[in-house]
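How a chain folds remains the central question behind the approach discussed here. The record that follows shows the chain in one-letter code together with its fold in token form:
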Amino acid sequence: MLTQIKGLHHVTSLASDARENNAFFTDTLGLRRVKKTVNFDAPDVYHLYYGDAQGTPGTVITYFPFPNADRGRPGTGEVGTTRFAIPKGSAKAWADRLSARGVSGLSSADAFGETALHFDGPDGDGFALVEAEDDRTPWTEGGISADMAIRGFHSAAMRLKDGGATGELLRFMGYEEIDRQGDITRYTIADGNAANVIDVETVPGASHADQGAGSVHHIAFAVENRARQLEVREALMDTGYQVTPVIDRDYFWAIYFRTPGGVLFEVATNEPGFDRDEDAAHLGEALKLPSQHEHLRSRLERHLTPIED
């Protein structure tokens, strides 16, 4: 069993409109935009990162907003719901806030002893705010006070036809099963960061998801540094997984592999962080380009739609 993985690092999804996406996460949810860059493989498309003040691993949700992308179709083989932690007793205030902003899909439910407020993102993304004891310091300069501001990720929920093999993988990665409710199995990782819960919902009769706007592209797990990442890579390959070489993503190093249930997993380093090319006080303000795309700056600055007035 691996001991290097410490919980979630980030979740990356697809969107259809950069301005709408930015407004939703920075205004409606009050997160900080910690990086404005572009897709490594499609530099004419933004890559936007939102999280806490520093973009701490376990708080960051990222988006590739492909203009006018068709919506995804929910189904199996994907992360169906991304959940954020909020303070105890704040779900009602959040429900009022989201309702006033016209957010759809609002519903409350209790599961695993926790109160969760479910809602849709701009492209039908599946989200929830979970009341939890969480001492992480929130970003409060987005217009939401500390008594209700998002702390970071609480968990992610995968929807699979068969959760058995993925459960084995999670246990190999250091997670342990702690509870079951109906078709949902909850896993957590000891001594991890606060974003340390994964739920696996088994839905054998459901159709496979079609990825598009509103879909999670991949889910990333955190390791401290490159040395720990290489240990994880070797162990996964020894177990039979096809794992990519280490890829430099500027703000972390990444490896990727496809899980038995079809979900794309990434293992990302906590180093070097989002302040490697920007002062911490000005994260997410300037357009930052990967070095291989810097020669395209003038064209990209003309092409990319401004995401703020």
The chain has five helices and 16 strands.
